[in-house]
Design a protein that fits this description.
The structure is a homodimer of 446-residue chains. Helices cover 35% and strands 22% of the residues of chain A. Chain A is globular, with a radius of gyration of 24 Å. Chain A folds into two domains: 267 residues, Aminopeptidase; 119 residues, Alpha-Beta Plaits. In chain A, α1 packs antiparallel against α3 and α12 runs antiparallel to α14. In chain A, strands 1, 2, 3, 6, 7, 9, 16, 17 and 18 form a nine-stranded mixed beta sheet that branches. Chain A has 446 residues and is an alpha/beta fold. Chains A, B: It holds the Pfam family M20_dimer. Chains A, B: Keywords: Hydrolase, Metal-binding, Protease. Chains A, B: It comes from Oceanithermus profundus (strain DSM 14977 / NBRC 100410 / VKM B-2274 / 506). Chains A, B: This is Peptidase M20.
Chain lengths: 446, 446
């Protein structure tokens, strides 16, 4: 049997950059590479063409009475730019100090392939019916995934959806993610004049869209982090004391966090810890802002237009549509006189929190604990993985987020890496989970 | 004698674009073209090389006891871009409906050449000693002009400095400008993080430079136009009731003003009219603002950096240096915690107001009145012409701003034009002024 690590290196050498049309053949090559591995492992595989990149779907039925697990992941990767900052070439996977350096090593080829390798190793001893849904468009917004899921609800039916595309809380600390924030994203375009005018000749008597944008942003969120949209907090479920106590036990180092992002302060809502503010409190952040002269030096112009884009991260039970409505109504209320405003709604996503005491989560916790030899911690994530809510809704199945990566894996950045030990233990954890799940679902405990 | 209009068309055909290095020879050609015209008119001319484009200096001494007038102007022009918006080519001067279309027609070739043509027509009957200082770098910030003026104070000595590089208040309405606003220009650069971070993973716990910029801008000026920098208004000289009454008699049409700039409102300090707000009240306008993602669609990033540039238009007796100091101190006071700030000072300029009842101004008023057949109005301008304060300081001479252009001349824009009638009457007014000035300076009146 071929060493899974060498197989992973082969997988990582394929530059399956979904965003770059010149890599279209490479993306397809990666899909067929997976097809070959899964076929070798005895799966019935289909490489499903889409209007974009193909979806790899595979299944192996072992026993109609056994539970069914659907593993979701993606085989496409981020573009490797800026190339000059890589210490080793992004598509020449290199192992150094126990770390596998390559684009896609952690996001998500290494993590999804841990499950494929587990299935290969279990071979005929597979204790569950296993399905793989591995897409090639995650890094470009998964345009074809939800339509595929909706169309193939029955075929994809599963007792548990298993996803490994997230980080562990700390190196060596097995982690299950049980919550994700949702998202509402709006863009505001303001216009106060038909054209830019001279700030000398007109200053004092005409609207200035840059100021209007600033006034509005200042009224959206105050410097203490409080969001001033009426009704914004109405549906926020407070964190239970037990949950807060659980987070307090996590090895979180505020100084290390500040050093990591290069921040001198960690401003935010008073009375909430940093983890709670990132995981369980809704936020509003301007992501882009522009008006007037953008070049070097000075130009004396009153800008006719301004724009700002902002994302709101949502928590249960906030509804992205309702929040976007509230935000838009407030924007219209605070719009200063003399400006035309256009509000554009970009993508959104539902917040998700799943119980940590469900049988699949408990099985996953034990599976990780056996692999790493440490008690599994339960964390939330501040980001959004919209497909999680989609799976829960469309397949009516619980989702287990079992991350093998690390925050320090340089996702979407140069020198992406994946610790070889996490790959090995990921395979082990995957096998453990498939073995333990049937027992937990039956109400047993290992 | 050659028709001055045909000579002007020849002058306008030279693409003397000072900002574009590929036009360096053309700029020089325009200088020599002026040299030839002024030499033909009996002037001693020098084309003075600088590190940039040459300065044309000419003088004609008629009588040691006669007053001396220094005419300042510029022979360089703005770049013609965007070319596709010109209805006739910018450097193929075209007369249509009594208007001369060409880059530089109004700014400033047509206006300065009116004075050259006047001197040519007066020939040996020149009633004053006349000097011309015509630079080729006005559109690139006049880097060599003030050093030249300082170095040649004696040679440039004059009883009056005459400048035609400004608009009349309305078509057919002879106008003298007796006030200009000053300028202080600052740029603020903020940084809250070492790098952009994901708005999901970090939102709620890290600084966001876009918000900091917005909060600060919102604290610089409120939506009513009030500037909140402590001490900002301390040195502002209020407008006298007579001056305000004089402006009230000007044919100003607020609806036409709004239509011209495409504004639905004319926000500004309550209790002040639009002209007073543009001419005699200080202002603060953000000229450029940027942070984070500038592209189409959405990107979920918390920007590490933000910048904003703002200009403050100043009125007597505000001092640009003092105002910049006050602004910088206030910026440091309102800077939110967790951000590093850099403040860059760009160019400034002193505000200027000259008496309207001085002999040169009265001579100019009569000169214009005789040419246009209407009473001359006195106006201020909202913009800044820093060289005016420099002339007043270095040459200790009064400055007369006798504009022949119109607000609608499309300065710095496609389809720049100059009304042929204003060129003709400008020549006449120039001759009138040179004739009337000696009498007014002697205390007489025509």
């Amino acid at each position: 049997m071929i060493d899974p690590l060498n197989q992973l290196l082969e997988f990582l050498a394929i530059p399956s950059v979904s965003a770059d049309p010149s890599h279209k053949q490479d993306v397809e090559r990666a899909a067929h590479w997976l097809d070959n591995r899964l076929s070798e492992a005895g799966f019935a595989v289909e490489v499903v063409p889409t209007t974009g990149h193909p979806i790899v779907y595979a299944e192996k039925q072992v026993d109609a009475s056994a539970p069914t697990v659907l593993v979701y992941g993606h085989y496409d990767v981020q573009p490797p730019d800026p190339l000059e900052l890589w210490e080793t070439p992004p598509f020449e996977p290199t192992i150094k100090d126990g770390k596998i350096y390559a684009r896609g090593a952690s996001d998500d080829k290494g993590q999804v392939f841990a499950h494929v390798a587990a299935a290969m190793q279990l071979a005929d001893d597979l204790p569950v019916n296993l399905k793989f849904l591995i897409e090639g468009e995650e890094e470009v917004g998964s345009p074809n995934l939800v339509p595929f899921v909706k169309e193939h609800r029955r075929r994809l039916a599963a007792d548990v959806v298993l996803i490994s595309d997230s980080p562990m809380f700390a190196p060596g600390l097995p982690t299950l993610t049980y919550g994700l924030r949702g998202l509402a994203y709006l863009e505001v375009r303001l216009r106060g004049l038909a054209r830019d005018v001279h700030s000398g000749a007109y200053g004092g008597a005409v609207p200035n869209a840059a100021h209007a944008a600033a006034w509005m942003i200042a009224q959206l969120k105050d410097p203490m982090g409080w969001i001033r949209i009426p009704g914004f907090y109405d549906d926020v479920v407070p964190v239970a004391p037990e949950e807060r106590a659980m987070w307090a036990r996590l090895p979180f180092d505020e100084e290390a966090f500040k050093a990591e992002v290069g921040a001198e302060a960690t401003p935010g809502e008073p009375g909430y810890g940093i983890l709670e503010r990132r995981w369980a409190r809704p936020t509003l952040d301007v992501n882009g802002l522009g008006s007037g002269y953008q070049g070097e030096g000075s130009k004396t112009v009153i800008p006719a237009e301004a724009f700002f884009k902002f994302s709101m991260r949502l928590v249960p039970d906030q509804d992205p549509e309702k929040i976007a409505d509230l935000a838009e109504a407030y924007l219209r209320e605070i719009l200063p006189e003399g400006y035309a405003m256009e509000v554009i709604r970009h993508h959104g996503g539902d917040p998700v929190v799943v119980p940590t005491n469900s049988p699949p989560m408990q099985a996953a916790a034990q599976a990780l604990e056996e692999a790493w030899g440490r008690e599994t911690v339960f964390t939330r994530e501040g980001g959004s993985i919209p497909i999680v809510a989609d799976f829960m809704r469309e397949l009516e199945a619980p989702v287990v987020l079992m991350g093998f990566g690390l925050e320090s894996d340089n996702l979407h950045a140069p020198n992406e890496k994946f610790d070889a030990v996490n790959f090995e233990k990921g395979i082990e954890a995957s096998k453990n989970f498939l073995r333990l799940l049937p027992m937990y679902l039956k109400g047993g405990s290992a």
